[in-house]
From TrEMBL:
Organism per entry: Commensalibacter papalotli (ex Servin-Garciduenas et al. 2014)
Molecular function, one GO term: DNA binding
EC number: 2.7.7.101
NCBIfam families: dnaG
PANTHER family: DNA PRIMASE
Zinc finger (CHC2-type): 38-60
Recorded family membership: Belongs to the DnaG primase family.
Reactions the enzyme catalyzes: ssDNA + n NTP = ssDNA/pppN(pN)n-1 hybrid + (n-1) diphosphate
Cofactor mode of binding and number, as noted: Binds 1 zinc ion per monomer.
KW Repressor (keyword) present: no
This protein's name: DNA primase
One of the Pfam families matching this protein, by short name: Toprim_4
Gene that specifies this protein: dnaG
Quaternary structure note: Monomer. Interacts with DnaB.
Cofactor or coenzyme needed: Zn(2+)
Length: 606
């Protein structure tokens, strides 16, 4: 059974090769790739390397892609391997009909037609009429060697020369139109050539086959840049210009590895200029905003590709769109980094005015995704009013909620809100490594007569210990108090305990077993011993069913430390309950109201 090539290509892109191989052998990261002991011959030292689209064993020489791995390792036929992988990828195997077979044959013929078209454009590039195109490229600083590498060429005048050339090779007008080389007329008939008087940029698939063209007008005319339309070979959202160059990146060992960075830029000339300067990992979307399909292509090449945008307002908007597009498909293993160029500059112009080393310096100062999201969100504020701050905070929470990986979403929420609080509600930083109380005790110890005085900071420290200890005793309340917990200005030992709590997976079960496994049980025992938890009669509570009581106690002690913040938390809980009056929001509101009432009446034993 024959399968449509576009279906097979999508299947290969959807299934991470290392995830399939890891079902058979243990795989570990090796730079941007993976390695393992070869599953096809016995070895103790890994020589089996897994790249984005293929594997290769340097011991026994076995080589292939995800489909051939399933066939060779599991003894499946080609059809069986495709069916199994399609099920894993959530793809429906296309029905093999006579029409489907005809379409596959047509697709094969289209590849040959596009290759013939490129041959024609290359021949036109050598004519006298193409001098304007050659001069344009040379004046842009593109060398003859780079021109040949990218197959840059000239469309001709569009007066039927291409059509005659292809017809001489027995391609029909219908097929030439299906390849995206002709204009469609109002009556549905095929008209003249789509590209004329344009410098031509061949667009290739991963294997280097020409599947479409981009053209830049020379002289007057619109649009300035024109891409092939969607065809059976070409889908803009699933292709990146320069994608076929990435295979050469893997084998290079430059003096500075940053030359091998996978870079996403905005245009053809940016890719070409960077390649000529030594950055062979540059790619560009084709006239559209970056899509999730294109992000998947990038992550197959690098776990942390770097997105470069022009330094103007449009570039900032494109950066924000790309960042938001990535959120639902982020994982702890794959993310994005960003660089911004000076206003009015793009990679092409920047390289021309400076040099490769200057661009390397920009890459060295790349920003991670969370920082970019925060900075761009703050830039969108029209002023620093309470309304705008509330809107910003809501947006930051919304950003984290778009991430499907729960642990990663939790980290993003914490990091984004930490930045928010640090900027708009700076802490007092009263604690530096050790509490003020401990420092005072050291000072007092040097005096011959010590009067037993209970310091205010000592009381605060004990209350902080109680807050942390309550969470270790009843971790199920962490999600409802997480934001307030992050707002606390804690000494070093309690700050470390907070990080442990925020990292604790709630579905793990026994938190004390978890603490032993990560080697932090002594730290927590120290904190709980300083908390005087006997005041809370903890043995009288069922930590599973009485979490409401623990939540109330937590907010009570929080209120003793930060009454103003507790009042704000009550207001937020009221707004959340009005918006969604379910049992969970009601419980949260009641716990905070009861705690606020107790603090205001001076109650201590809750």
């Amino acid at each position: 059974m024959a399968f449509d090539q576009r279906f097979l290509e999508e299947l290969r892109q959807r299934i991470p090769l290392h995830s399939i191989i890891s079902r058979k052998v243990k795989v570990t990261r090796s730079g941007r790739h993976w390695k393992a002991c070869c599953p096809f011959h016995g070895e103790k030292t890994p020589s089996f390397y897994i790249y984005d689209d293929h594997f290769h064993c340097y011991g026994c020489g076995v080589h292939g892609d995800v489909i051939s791995f399933v066939m060779q390792n599991e003894g499946r036929t080609f059809n069986e391997a495709v069916t199994e992988l399609a099920s894993l990828a959530g793809l429906e195997v296309p029905e093999q009909t006579p029409q489907q077979k005809q379409r596959q044959e047509q697709q094969h013929n289209l590849y040959e037609l596009m290759a013939s078209t490129h041959e024609y454009y290359l021949s036109e590039f050598q004519t006298n009429k193409a001098k304007i195109a050659r001069d344009y490229l040379l004046n842009r600083g593109i060398t003859p060697q780079t021109i040949r590498h990218f197959g840059l060429c000239w469309s001709g005048d569009g007066r039927g020369g291409l059509i005659q050339y292809l017809k001489s090779k027995e391609y029909s007008l219908e097929m030439i139109g299906e390849a995206g080389l002709l204009r469609k007329q109002a009556d549905g008939q095929w008209g003249g050539e789509l590209f004329f008087n344009r410098v031509i940029y061949p667009i290739c698939d991963r294997r280097g086959r020409v599947i479409a063209f981009g053209g830049r007008i020379i002289g007057d005319g619109q649009p300035k840049y024109l891409n092939s339309p969607e065809t059976p070979l070409f889908s803009k959202r699933r292709v990146l210009f320069g994608l076929n160059n990435l295979s050469s990146v893997y084998a290079r060992k430059e003096i500075d590895p940053l030359y091998n960075t996978i870079l996403v830029v905005e245009g053809y000339m940016d890719v070409i200029a960077l390649y000529q300067a030594g950055f062979h990992g540059a790619v560009a979307p084709l006239g559209t905003a970056l899509t999730q399909d294109q992000l998947a292509l990038l992550w197959r090449a690098s776990a942390q590709p770097v997105l470069s945008f022009d330094g103007d307002g449009a570039g900032r908007r494109a950066m924000l769109h790309a960042a938001e597009e990535a959120l639902p498909i982020l994982t702890p293993e794959q993310t994005l980094n960003f660089i911004s160029l000076p206003d009015g500059e793009d990679p092409d112009s920047y390289i021309q005015k400076n040099d490769a080393e200057a661009f390397l310096e920009i890459i060295r100062h790349k920003q991670n995704l969370s920082n970019v999201l925060y900075d761009l969100s703050v830039e969108a504020m029209t002023d620093r009013s309470p309304e705008q701050r509330a809107a910003l905070r809501a947006r930051l929470i919304s950003i984290s909620e778009q991430i499907k990986d729960q642990n990663l979403a939790k980290e993003y929420r914490k990091v984004l809100l930490d930045q928010f609080y640090a900027q708009f509600y700076p802490r007092n930083d009263r604690f530096d490594n050790k509490t003020t109380f401990e420092k005072k005790q050291k000072k007092i110890a040097n005096v011959s007569i010590v009067r037993p005085v209970l310091q205010k900071t000592q009381v605060e420290y004990e209350r902080m210990c109680i807050l942390i200890a309550l969470l270790f005793y009843c971790p199920s309340i962490i999600p409802s108090v997480e934001e307030a917990l992050c707002r606390l200005d804690l000494p070093e030992d309690l700050a470390m305990a907070r990080e442990i709590l925020l990292d604790f997976p709630l579905d793990y079960g026994d938190i004390y077993l978890y603490l032993k496994q990560i080697g932090k049980i002594e730290l927590i025992e120290k904190i709980t011993s300083n908390s005087n938890l006997n005041l809370l009669n903890q043995n009288n509570y069922d930590k599973v069913t009485d979490f409401q009581l623990f939540e109330k106690q937590w907010w009570h002690f929080y209120g003793w430390l930060n009454l103003q913040e507790l009042e704000e938390q009550v207001t937020q809980a009221q707004q959340a309950w009005i918006k969604c009056p379910d049992e969970a929001h009601q419980r949260t509101l009641i716990a905070r109201l009861n705690a606020l009432d107790a603090v205001k009446h001076g109650e201590f034993d809750v």
